[in-house]
């Protein structure tokens, strides 16, 4: 029994880890590509039987949420609205699903391993859900990008509405896996995750957090002091917690420039 469970988890991980992953946009030529809003939610991979996180962990969902889902694979984002990540995270990653799942929609942006170019792959899922309706299903609008000016205008409009950013994708290719130059994320800033290893408190108020000492995946350690509310400074993330922060490039010592706290990131 244990062997069967292990094999299932291994297969789930391998399936989810081979998903498409965007690289960072650096003024590449994206004329003729498709652009769409990058939703700030929880990415979810439908393997034909279960919804999995990007790390291959099964998501606990109400039975009706995946009613009429196909046997073929889907890739999308579990989402509610802009600037609502903490709420989305608390609902989706809860071990026991609640009626709060009624706030969540599954926003499809890819159909892994389907035949044809990008729009043809998406049409496979659209045709399926036209015949097998599900009230939780949405498709992220894909807009043809004719120039960098188009992209900048689209990005600025979304950011002004508290969106996270934009995804641009070469729509002419067959499905591909992994991190690739044919899918790019475009943001006004970068974001990264790190682990809290120390909490630094104010000298004049030992109950108030001044900054968090963060360790990045590459071993770099720095102090994160910006972006916290006063309430968060009196109840800071605990040591061992993973936090997400935004930044604007790196110093010569590979430390994030102008880093600012965004949120605590739960394990997916």
Description:
With 268 residues, the chain is an alpha+beta fold. Helices cover 21% and strands 31% of the residues. The protein contains 5 helices and 15 strands. The strands form 3 sheets. A 5-stranded mixed beta sheet has the order 1-10-9-2-8. A hairpin with a 5-residue loop joins strand 12 and strand 13. It is globular and about 65 Å long. Residues 1-16 have low confidence and may be disordered.
Entry keywords:
268 residues, 21% helix, disordered N terminus
Rounded to the nearest angstrom, the radius of gyration is 20 Å
Mean pLDDT: 91
Query: Segments where pLDDT lies below 50 for 5+ residues?
Result: 1-16
DSSP helix fraction: 10-25%
Q: Count helical runs.
A: 5
Strand content: 25-35%
Give the overall shape.
globular
Q: Largest sheet at a glance?
A: 5 strands, mixed
- Give the class from helix and strand content and strand pairing: alpha+beta
Count of distinct strands: 15
Q: Helix and strand succession?
A: HEEEEEHEHEEHEEEEEHEE
What's the short version?
The chain contains five helices and 15 strands. It is an alpha+beta fold.
List the helices and strands and how they pair.
Layout: H1 2-17, E1 20-24, E2 34-38, E3 42-46, E4 51-52, E5 74-79, H2 85-92, E6 105-110, H3 118-131, E7 137-139, E8 143-144, H4 148-160, E9 165-169, E10 178-186, E11 190-201, E12 209-215, E13 221-224, H5 230-234, E14 242-247, E15 260-265
Parallel strand pairs: 1-10, 6-7
Antiparallel strand pairs: 2-8, 2-9, 3-4, 3-5, 5-6, 9-10, 11-12, 11-14, 12-13, 14-15
């Amino acid at each position: 029994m244990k062997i069967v469970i292990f094999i299932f988890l291994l297969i789930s991980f391998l399936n989810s880890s081979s998903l498409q992953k965007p690289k960072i946009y650096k003024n590449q030529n994206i004329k003729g590509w498709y652009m769409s809003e990058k939703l700030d939610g929880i990415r979810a991979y439908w393997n034909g039987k279960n919804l999995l996180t990007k790390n291959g962990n099964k998501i606990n969902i109400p039975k009706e949420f995946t009613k009429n889902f196909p046997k073929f694979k889907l890739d999308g984002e579990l989402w509610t609205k802009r600037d609502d990540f903490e709420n989305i995270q608390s609902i989706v990653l809860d071990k026991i699903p609640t009626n709060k799942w009624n706030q969540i929609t599954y926003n499809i942006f890819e159909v892994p391993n389907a035949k044809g170019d990008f729009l043809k792959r998406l049409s496979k899922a659209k045709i399926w859900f036209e015949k097998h309706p599900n009230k939780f299903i949405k498709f992220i609008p894909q807009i043809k990008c004719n120039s960098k000016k188009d992209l900048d205008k689209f990005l600025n409009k979304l950011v002004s509405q508290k969106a996270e950013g934009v995804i641009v994708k070469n729509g002419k290719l067959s499905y591909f896996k992994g991190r690739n130059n044919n899918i790019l994320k475009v943001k006004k800033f970068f974001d990264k995750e790190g682990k809290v290893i120390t909490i630094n408190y104010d000298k004049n108020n030992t109950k108030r957090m001044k900054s968090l000492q963060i360790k990045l995946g590459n071993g770099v350690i720095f102090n994160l002091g910006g972006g916290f509310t006063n309430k968060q400074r009196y109840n800071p993330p605990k040591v061992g917690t993973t936090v997400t922060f935004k930044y604007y490039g790196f110093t010569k010592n590979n430390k994030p420039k102008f880093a600012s706290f965004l949120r605590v990131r739960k394990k997916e």
